[in-house]
Design goal:
321 residues; mainly beta; Immunoglobulin-like; 2 domains; four-stranded antiparallel beta sheet; 18 strands; elongated; disordered N terminus; C2_dom; membrane; C2_domain_sf; Synaptotagmin-like protein 2; exocytosis
Length: 321
């Protein structure tokens, strides 16, 4: 998954000069009430990884402006090529009349397993003016890839992964008193309430669950998860996780990592997550990459620390970790 230090901005556009072309076709299948985008291939793509002189490209699509409602669609990743061949169909279940207000955004990205994905170019089609009866519009055609547009009101390069509503509380004693008044350890309670507008990665089905770990502890004891909520992009979990043994000073060094997953028989797919802590970059004096909380995530953690025995609630945007 791609990393990020910029909240919901999961992409690193870097200094890649956009070049090359993409070949695709668009059609609306009346019998299925589906928009089909046939991604054929790309050619002469830019070099994303200069050191290794390679690109591992994939194609992603959105329907704008409210892309989160229908989610993104992605092709497979083709490794070590500037001329990837996909021959894949990306589908959206949508009424034809609704397409009059939609813009189709097709973008090409380099997939960096351990870093941030790089933008390689995009194409936009205004579906409001698209002639679905023109046979030539159904033909596979080449389109030049274009660089991103600075200040575009649609924020096309923002990776929206949905939101999570949760509450936190630091309990001490019998949830009475304050951290300063006692010397014993306490508990942190994490009440995962629900998620909103989770991205669809495969068709129109989504079976999601949430994993939780209190870093730096990655042992089995630290791992908890919710049940799986099926067939919805707005799952309600209402699941509380409890972690004990916290001293007041531990709260400055720990970080709650919550990750949302799409459950699949073959493999679970990562959708987005949160890291709630102070975001100092260090834990117990050691520099760690996971102490990278955003300002919103840090604000929630600080409110919890400053208000023991009180539930602190917020809705935060999920991001790539």
């Amino acid at each position: 998954v791609s990393g990020s230090l910029m909240s919901i901005y999961s992409a690193d556009f870097g200094n890649v000069d956009v070049k090359g072309n993409i070949q695709f076709a668009v059609d609306y299948v009346e019998q299925l009430n589906e928009l089909h985008i046939f991604i054929c291939q790309c050619k002469d793509l830019a070099v994303a990884d200069v050191k290794r002189q390679r690109s591992d490209p994939y194609v992603k699509t959105y329907l704008l402006p409210e892309k989160y409602k229908l989610g993104k669609r992605k092709t497979s990743v083709k490794k070590k090529t500037f001329n990837p061949v996909y021959n894949e169909i990306l589908r959206y279940k949508i009424e034809k009349d609704l397409l009059k207000n939609q813009t189709l955004n097709i973008s090409v990205w380099h997939n960096d397993t351990f870093g941030r994905n790089s933008f390689l170019g995009e194409v936009e089609l205004d579906l409001g003016t698209w002639d679905w009866n023109d046979r030539s519009n159904k033909q596979i055609s080449w389109f030049p890839l274009k660089p991103r547009v600075e200040g575009n009101v649609n924020y096309l390069w923002v990776e929206y992964n949905g939101e999570m509503t949760l509450s936190l509380t630091a309990c001490v004693g019998r949830c009475q008193g304050t951290w300063k008044k006692i010397l014993s350890t306490g508990e942190v309670h994490i009440w995962v309430k629900e998620c909103h507008n989770l991205p669809l990665l495969r068709g129109n089905r989504l079976n999601s669950f949430i994993k939780c770990t209190i870093l730096p502890d990655t042992s089995r004891k630290s791992r908890q998860k919710t049940r799986t909520v099926a067939k919805t992009t707005n799952p309600v979990f209402n699941h509380t996780m409890v972690y004990d043994g916290f001293r007041p000073e531990d709260l400055k060094e720990a970080c709650i990592e919550l990750t949302v997953w799409d459950h699949n028989k073959l493999a679970n797919h990562f959708l987005g997550g949160l890291r709630i802590g102070l975001g100092t970059g260090k834990s117990y004096g050691t520099t760690v990459d996971w102490m990278d909380s955003t300002s919103d995530e840090t604000a929630l953690w600080e409110k919890m620390m400053n208000s023991p025995n009180t539930w602190i609630e917020d809705t935060l945007p999920l991001r790539m970790l």
